[in-house]
Amino acid sequence: MRLVADLHTHTIASGHAYSTIKEIAEAAQQKGLELVAITDHGPNEPGAPHWYYFDNLPVVPKRIAGVEVLKGVEANIIGWEGELDLDLETLSRLDLVAAGFHTRETGSVEENTHTMIKAMAGGLVDIIVHPGNPRFAIDPVRVVEAAQKYGVVLEINNSSLTAGSFRRGSRGNCLKIARLAAEAGIMVVVGSDAHWAEDVGEFGLALELLLEAGVKPEQVLNTSVEKIKSYLEKRGQLRRQALADVEKGQA
Ligand SMILES: [Zn+2]
Ligand SMILES: [Zn+2]
Predict the structure, then answer these.
(1) How would DSSP label each residue in 51-114?
(2) What is the distance in A from the centroid of ligand 1 to the CA of 15?
(3) How many domains, in total, are found in the chain?
């Protein structure tokens, strides 16, 4: 399986990552990727940028070092009803909204599952990142069902599977999620979650897991730039429509 894009990368703006956007794009080019998404952490993560950072991303070129650059965020799911740490106006300007659990209170499996499903149901999130994180255990059956219902892509995070990961113990959960996704025929995505440029495009452990789970290449969002763009275009319209509805309600 060949992946042409990395949809999960962090720059120095995240506060605990160490490369620039330019270095990330150059690394993507060196790894033979056609597209890379910059997904710095949302404002709620300690050291993460203010929302001004996300609003000003249009100043960054759409193509750097021959690689298409998408402007995104890895938002934090902060409330128990799936609330995110950026407002709708900022989210509606981004090419990609990934979201997951980070610095927050951990709940029971029931609470975490409910919250993750609410984040998907809200229509603002394109990718749920590292759903296999054992610190925020979820019910994989219900999460995969919800991903199918709401058309949201679940991530298999390569960095969760590495030996030194903060999310140690993720593999069994990720394998369960991937197996259920394979059965349901829903879309998944592989992200490097690079916090250093040379880790961009590192997908080996996740690809091994997908193979073991029986996930087909056509089920993986980042096997094709066209697939990524048509998915994100559709999702972006949902956010812009949600914003238009809010603005109409206020008028
Ligand atoms: Zn991080
Ligand atoms: Zn994360």
Answers:
(1) HHHHHTGGGS-SEETTEEEEEEEEEEB-STT--BSS-HHHHHH-SEEEEE--SS----HHHHHH
(2) 8
(3) 1
67-76 and 35-41: which strand pairing?
parallel
Please choose, from the candidates 81, 36, 75, the residue with its C-alpha nearest in 3D space to the C-alpha of residue 228.
36
Q: What span, in angstroms and rounded, lies between the C-alpha atoms of 148 and 120? A: 10
Domain span including residue 39: 5-250
Task: Return d(Cα 175, Cα 171) in angstroms, integer.
Answer: 6
CATH code of the domain covering residue 82: 3.20.20.140
Q: Judging by beta carbons within 10 Å of its beta carbon (0-12, 13-18, 19+), is residue 24 exposed, middle or buried?
A: buried
Ligand at minimal distance from the CA of 194 is 1
Please state, for a pLDDT cut of 70, what percent of the chain lies above it: 100
Q: Could you give the CA distance from residue 251 to residue 245 in angstroms, rounded to a whole number?
A: 10
pTM of the model: 0.97
Instruction: Write out pLDDT tens, residues 180-204.
Output: 999 999 999 999 999 999 999 999 9
The whole-number pLDDT of residue 250 equals 85
Ligand located closest to 46 CA = 1
Q: pLDDT-based confidence at 131, cuts 50/70/90?
A: very high
166 CA → ligand 1 middle, Å? 10
Query: Residue 168: its pLDDT value, please?
Result: 87
